[in-house]
Structures are given as structure tokens and as C-alpha cells.
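user: can you give me the structure for this one chain? C-alpha cells are fine.
assistant: on it. calling the predictor now.
[tool input]
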Amino acid sequence: MKPPLRHAALTHMRNFSAVGGIARALKYVAVCLSITALALPGGPTLVSATTPTDGLAIASIQPTAGQVVGVAEPLTVSFAEPVIDRAAAERTLNITASNGQPGRAEWLNDQVLQWKPVGFWPSHSHITMMSGGFATDITTGSAVLGVASISQHTFTVSIDGQVARTMPASMGKPSRPTPIGDFTVLDRNRSVVMDSRTIGIPLSSPEGYLITASYAERITNGGVYVHSAPWSVDSQGHSNVSHGCINLSPDNAAWYYNTVHIGDPVSVQA
């Protein structure tokens, strides 16, 4: 009945090679304003409006090209240097998304910009983003939505709007409650080491633990996971005994691990 977590690293950033050569002497780059959506009947929506601005060096764009992601996955641009003019940086985005999906820009820090869909991306669709000569082209999978009910002790997964499985679950006990809110799967790990010292509990404490959990999906930067917890199967569906994670049986955890993508949404409800 021990389940929390080793803090995992933030979303990995991978460098992309520039699309086409960019001469060093160029003072300006072509950028596209990602606020105005031009609807194309029967096809994708191109978010566009070309505007010249001083060049902003881009280190990487994520997700990587060709990746299949969940319907809540943000698009992330990492700039090579701290950005002073954030509005100009946002205008470097040229995003193509199905069905006219709107989005919003959010800054994680002075160098990392995320573009998040309002709601979810359409399932089974293509999304492209270009910025400063870098590009990525990704595909969304099925819309896999996980809903954890703290009071009902269940974890229900819907796929493309249809309930696929309702599973007994155990969430955080009163002293270590599972946070309520809307989250996104940040990482998937076949196994992950969970160490109570990362949340301030010594191993020598009766509450201490150092375990390896299987079929683990991280949903917060603080280390809350959905994962297999054979030690709490008797409590799953009846009571909340974890240190904040969402505990599932090994079979149910394996099924969810093999069904969900990074970027799929998880909602925790009271």
C-alpha cells in the first residue's frame, strides 16, 4: 500500500535539424501568427498570417516528428536563449490542425513555449507545427480519457467517447490525498523506482518505501502516477490507501499502459 514516486524528468526535448538552410546573414525570418484560423471546408485548418520579425533561434520542437500522441498533448518550442519579446516568439508558430482546433500559448519559463489545444485535439488526426525553420508532424491516436473517482474508488477509461473499462482503484489516503483536477499523461514507464525520500519521508519511517512499480504513467511533475499496485488490490474499489498515486491491479494497469499515449487526459474527481 505504498505508492508514490520518484520525481521524473520534465518532458524530453529533442533537437530537430533545420528544414532547409538558413543563411546567417538573414536578419528576418518568415513567421506565422497562430491566432487567426482560416477554415478550409472538408479539410484541415491552417493557422496562419505571415509577419516578418527579428530572428529567434530555436533549439528544438516537440513532440518528435512521426510520433503518435494523446489528444491533450501540447506542442513545445524550446528557444536557444531567453526570450524577451514573448509576443514575437508566439508569432513564429505556424500550426496546422484538423477541424479548426483553437489553442493558447503558455510559457513554462523564459525559453520554453507551449501551444495547448483548447479542449482536445481531434482524435485520429494530423497536426503540424513550423517555427524558425524547425518543424514537427504528429498524429493523434484514439481519445483515451481516464477518470479517477476518489469517492467511488474507480478509474474509468473511455475510448473515443465510449466507456471501455471501469476498474477498481485506490487513491491517496487522507494524509496524502490525490490532487483533484485535470491532468495529462507526461510519461509512460514499464517500471519506475518510487522512493519516499523524494517526498520528504525517510526510509526509516513507518511510512517509508523504496519500491519498483510497474505499468506507470506520470500525470504530475510532482510525481503522481497511475500504476500497478499488487500490494493494495484488497483496498482497490473500497478505500484509499496510497500516498497520492492511483493504484490499479496488475492486469488493469497493464491494460491501461498498453492503451494510453503520452498526452492523453486524466481527470481526478472527488
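assistant: here you go. The helical segments are 86-90, 250-259. Confidence is low (pLDDT under 50) at residues 1-54.
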